[in-house]
Amino acid sequence: MRISQLFYQTMKEVPREAQVPSHQLMFRAGMIQQLASGIYNYTPLAKKSLSKIETIIREELEKKGCQEVLLPVVQPSELWEKSGRWGYYGPELLRLKDRKDNDFCLGPTHEEVITDMVSKVLKSYKQLPWNLFQIQTKFRDEVRPRFGLMRGREFTMKDGYSFDVDEEASKVMYWKMYDAYTAIFKRCGLSFRAVDAATGNIGGDMSHEFQVLAQSGEDLILSCDSCDYAANAEKAVTPRSAQELTEEGMEQTEDVHTPACRTIEEIADYLKRPASDFIKSIIYVVDEEPVLVLIRGDLDINESKLQTALSANGVFLADDALVQEVSGAGTGFAGPVGLKKQVKIVADYSVTEGKNMVSGANKDDYHKVNVNYGRDYKADVLGDLSFAQPGDKCPKCEGKLEDHRGIEVGQVFYLGTKYSEPMECNYLDRDGKSHPAVMGCYGIGVGRTMAAAIEQNHDEDGMIWPAAIAPYEAVILPLQMNKDEVVAAGEDLYTSLRDAGMDVALDDREERAGFKFKDADLLGYPLQIVIGARSLEAGEVELKIRKTGEKKNIPLAEVKSFVENFLKEEKSAD
């Protein structure tokens, strides 16, 4: 591509909301334009990188026997009602009606559609396994789109779905996809970790996230300093259990007036006691039923663990009216003793670790002191509902957990029959008996992967692309466009490298050398080939390796072989 013809425009200033490097640099390089909050135009530079990522994805999945399909963006509500997710997915699901008042949504994911499609074809166990994928636009109505392509509302995603005869075969497929994803992100030139993860709204009981390590990452990853254990903060566990409390030292409960003290911080300050002495009591709606959830006051409830513990489709905070109905008091004064309405109580192990704790008294402006687990109340469900912390003991060995920041670029799920059973995606076994297909689900954020590559590979001058996914692998920089010999050398080299199959750009603009150098650094071409009148007299050109800043002069006749070897080594190293 001749840069004089390339559709792009670099910028010195970036929007105030561009807070992370990838967002800032893609704006500055003219790779993206914001159309609406969380919705972007992709210019040719971005599209080239996205296409290269998509090619790597397709090649690695086809090695595993996956087949590509393309499904509609607009999905009818009937499918979601059949799976049970229409009422549970939440406000991220963008719902709409057609002119006949029928309900639809813009697909944030395609479990329902793919399962419906397969159910129309699947008859016999002899047809399985199937592993189908697509690379397609998704829409999720994020409450706070931010960080550019890292958390947008409209985005490109690879989503894949496997169908097998039983759990054993499905889990073999799961690990096959795990290996494929490992190969994909290695080929993209990324430093990443696969970590144990929560399943969220997708469902299932086993999942791994592929996290690109970067300081700007949204996700907290906890890993052991002594073994291979790694998990995201939502899934990480510590080896805690319920403590058996004796009644020795337990004091009588008493209601204490605590005017306007609704939060743990306010009541701890008022009673001059540490937050760890309190029971945080929060009412949730779990599958349309109110549930009281308890945890020690210095900890926070991990909603993913809560959802898993209750095998729930979704968990949501109760509104003030429901809190009043259940507790008999306003928000901030609920507690496990003396509820107005009896509901299921779910508690974290931490509430069993101390005596004479403080909770809400279920009446406005009052708290109850000397509350003890076992004597004054019991939980219907007791388990690990808290977030693991750096320094906690590893659940697999005697090591300690360390924290890292990561950007989730892919995730694999074992789904079981969560979708196939309600949607009647069945097959007949060799005895003619009907069974639901056993499913897996596998996603990659294509735009996120591009953004994560920039987050991990940049400096103060611009992007530093891994060669495998760079919009252009090299740029030729003729410095004196008024000298025929420089222009001719640039044109000849451009033609030679292109004919050899290399993806190269030629900066043929009538611009100063400094301007071209700045642009080349900003756009992050892995290799810069500088042609100047002085070096050309000696039959040489200067090569600059963007990643290291190393410069070297080599004979013009050797440029082609050098570039070929350089790119081969870079992609091999990636």
List strands and helices in order, with pairings.
Layout: H1 21-28, E1 32-36, E2 39-42, H2 44-63, E3 67-68, E4 74-76, H3 77-83, E5 95-97, E6 103-106, H4 111-119, E7 130-139, E8 154-164, H5 167-187, E9 192-196, E10 206-213, E11 219-224, E12 230-232, E13 254-257, H6 264-271, E14 279-286, E15 289-296, H7 303-309, E16 315-317, H8 320-327, E17 344-348, E18 357-360, E19 366-371, E20 381-383, E21 401-416, E22 426-428, E23 434-436, E24 438-445, H9 446-456, E25 458-459, E26 462-463, E27 474-478, H10 484-499, E28 504-506, H11 513-523, E29 527-531, H12 533-537, E30 540-545, E31 551-555, H13 559-573
Parallel strand pairs: 3-7, 15-17, 17-20, 27-28, 27-29
Antiparallel strand pairs: 1-2, 4-6, 5-6, 7-8, 8-24, 9-10, 10-21, 11-12, 11-21, 13-19, 14-15, 14-16, 18-19, 21-24, 22-23, 25-26, 29-30, 30-31
Helix pairs in contact: 1-9, 2-5, 2-9
What does the model show?
The chain has 574 residues and is α+β, with helices and mostly antiparallel strands. The protein has 3 domains: 3-237 and 402-455, 2-Layer Sandwich (BirA Bifunctional Protein, domain 2), CATH 3.30.930; 254-383, YbaK/aminoacyl-tRNA synthetase-associated domain (YbaK protein), CATH 3.90.960.10; 472-573, Rossmann fold. It is 25% helix and 28% strand. It is built from 13 helices and 31 strands. Strands 3, 7, 8, 9, 10, 11, 12, 21 and 24 form a 9-stranded mixed sheet that branches. A hairpin with a 5-residue loop joins strand 11 (219-224) and strand 12 (230-232). Helix 2 (44-63) packs across helix 5 (167-187) and helix 2 (44-63) crosses helix 9.
